[in-house]
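User: My advisor, Dr. K., asked me to get a structural model of this assembly before our group meeting. I'm new to this, so sorry if the format is off. These are the inputs:
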Amino acid sequence: MTTSDSVPTDLMGLSRKEYNTIINILERIPNFTELGIFSVMWSEHCSYKSSKIWLKSLPTSGAQVIQGPGENAGVVDIGDGLAAIFKIESHNHPSFIEPYQGAATGVGGIMRDVFTMGARPIANLNALRFGSPEHHKTRHLVNGVISGIGGYGNCMGVPTVGGEVNFDSSYNGNILVNAMTVGIASKEKIFYSAAAGVDLPVVYVGSKTGRDGIHGATMASAEFADDSDEKRPTVQVGDPFTEKLLLEACLELMATDAIVAIQDMGAAGLTSSSVEMASKGGVGINLNIDKVPRRETDMTAYEIMLSESQERMLMVLKPGHEDMAKKIFEKWEIDFEVIGITNDTGYLTLIEDSELVASIPVAPLVDAAPEYDRPWTPTPPQPIIKTKDVPSPDDLGAVLKLMISSPNLCSRQWVWEQYDHMVMGNTVIRPGADAALVRVHDTNKGIAITTDCTPRYVEANPIEGGRQAVAEAYRNVTAVGAKPLAVTNNLNFGNPEKPHTMGQLVGAIRGIGEACLALDCPVVSGNVSLYNETNGKSILPTPVIGCVGIIDNISESISFGFKANEEVIIVIGETVGWLGCSLYQKQLTDETVGAPPPVNLNEERKNGDLIRKLIKDNYLTSCHDVSDGGIAIAIAEMAIESGIGAKIDFKPNIPVHSWAFGEDQGRYIVTTKMADNVQSQASKAGVKSVAIGITSSTTLTLPGARPISIEQLRDCHLRWFPEYMAGQTKNTYSA
Amino acid sequence: MTAAVIVFPGSNCDRDVAVVLKSITGKTPKMVWHQENTLPKCDLIVIPGGFSYGDYLRSGAMAAHSPIMKTIVKQAQSGVPVLGICNGFQILTESGLLPGVLMRNSSLRFVCKDVNIRVEKTDTVFSKAYIRGEILRIPIAHHEGNYFADENTLKEIEDGAQIAFRYCSSKGDITQSSNPNGSVANIAGIFNSEGNILGMMPHPERLADPFLGGTDGLPMFTALAEAISR
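Assistant: The format is fine. Below is the predicted structure of the whole assembly, which you can bring to the meeting.
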């Protein structure tokens, strides 16, 4: 083995101190390949070195949890011998550099994380955040990301059923693409990554290895500057067709008992997959680099180990099962190669041309990964904004039209029509609702799924914002009638070496933990994406929560559109008219300031329990969560969805605009034919409920405002996105 | 009725259509891998939707040369009903069993949504449970559904009453705004001249279950099952 005695000038993103630790571990200077392996394994992206000590505080257990964080994805019990397997993961940096491939491979990667564990993926979601619509790159990035997500998911035949799309100038130089996949497996047939046992064949399956994505994980662990375009070679290229074949081949092999362990090659490719399998199994692995299928000539061991070429898996098989397994992969026309063997040395060793080119002890490579308690400062509390300090509108209806046609509240139909959201024949509630509802194949069960985060709240108060992200996800799953089971989180933040940013991360994790505990929704998987900054400017702190819930019978689910005229409209939960940090404030003053609405977790749970009971007992005809834009926006959405109007004759005892647009938490709007029963059940449960009007005709009348035609509202709601994407910059309805 | 569903690498609506067929006939259709050279004896051949071979070349172009296609052509010529949905329609045109071609959508985007289609012909095994002029709500999900045929071919199709469905407004009018992909004459599906091969871009199997929001696709499958079991 050749090693150089001099300290390399490029430490591949490692600090000098980390480099010295490596020398101590190896008791010599690492060679180029070894340094590359340490560099990716100890990158922020793979090692969670800045967040790990805080992530440990999150609640991760519960009766429903089969597997918490630490595997490829989290696993929860959904009854009748079935399990839901899910995770969310970011592909932010690559998507900014090359939006189509960045987003596509993000979707491909998260699906592999799920089917690696033996689950057939049944739904994809995407939480997307783009820069200001006026920014010159935004339209191009939206177009590329949406096409990339569709291009991959549609070809795979997995429906993309929901997610988020939001705009804020803080993402101008650093968009967020968070992809979530949910899969279903038999509880008895879940596959893990621990390669326990020695002398077992290590098998490479999937696409050939190329030079794409080398050091992608390291790239994702640093800030951007103006030269970000030069990082394009670190972005991988996706091949959804091969992934579809890989999925079918893996599931076919998983139906046998040949597999000991399996791990997808995601970030840091062959390096992290082999190291993680060896580490979890407490074994060593010897890899013959020459055996790795490759699509380019003259690749070095370094390039092969660090390549992030897509659609690849590493498996450890039971000895003697290689031929049978190979036949399956040959049928699907997928490469299958035995490239190594497990052993009892505890070392990762690489052989190239019969020579040892790298030798690293696995345990310290994983366990001695740096862990930092970075200095942090709490976000200073923001003042509570008084209603009188926010302008009141001249015309409530005109403001409603402006808001519902604004970039952050308008319909996302333009987006989800480009995603196949119906393939697999189980989409019960389609995109655009509170949560998507997907039937579990061959059963009456439904899985409700949503992703949520309100970054402006998190910026104002990270703890409250963290709580709110979980609470809103919980509410969205509840609003279709499902019981929230667990969450996955994607923590997108700026540079953790800045104490203020680190303080945002610490606060958000605390808030998320509190809410998950109070709502019995443990965190079972997740991903941390730091260094989301360009030229020193950070994104809004964006801890996205993906929540999965269960409904035992899809016939007991409910949708948010009004169903008929003359039904009573009731607000469940307390309204105080909180305008600080609201979209109303943004609409009238062009900024959001002040403290965000507080989340009362006890009430959140009580209100959620009541809503689920009312839905199950068939008291409600529609249900919608109240969030961005408050009651007025929620009612308008229910009307637009159905074409049925509403007459709201309630006289609030607070200024009507704060009542209509305030963003108090823990609320739902429901319609019913049995208003008295609903309200008496609410009062019995100790939940505030107010009847505010009835569904009626084809206009919406708010208190003290002129009627607005639903047709006109729908037009306002639908038109911004397609017009913006067609290059017509006019971005609001002129009142 | 015995149905065969052909599975190409990249097919992804094979299970969906099998589920609907089973719900009607009580029998699981035979799933036939594209490398097979023979078909089991069957009364219906379905070429399902998806992305055969990733559709990296022209959609359906690779699949049209799969070994199984020779047998399908033979069976189709002998009168066995063949239903091609979405990618299946593309494969049927690529293999020459149906005239015309499916080009990229005029929007250049993938589109997935419910559309209205008008039933144009009802004297076939596929469509006899519908009424002529009836408006169905059926989803589409494709990137290459823009049907095109040259003037002469189009005239032959029209004269031969081979048009199965046209995209239409909710009132049944054949308008440009109701055409989701730019298809010539708003064509959503066509028959061969004998009427035993149907290719269509909309997915009838996707709205054949009340839990999924509609059942307008169901009569096609019940009609097929009835016609064939008789």
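One thing worth pointing out at the meeting: The first helix of chain A runs from residue 16 to 26.

User: Perfect, thanks a lot.
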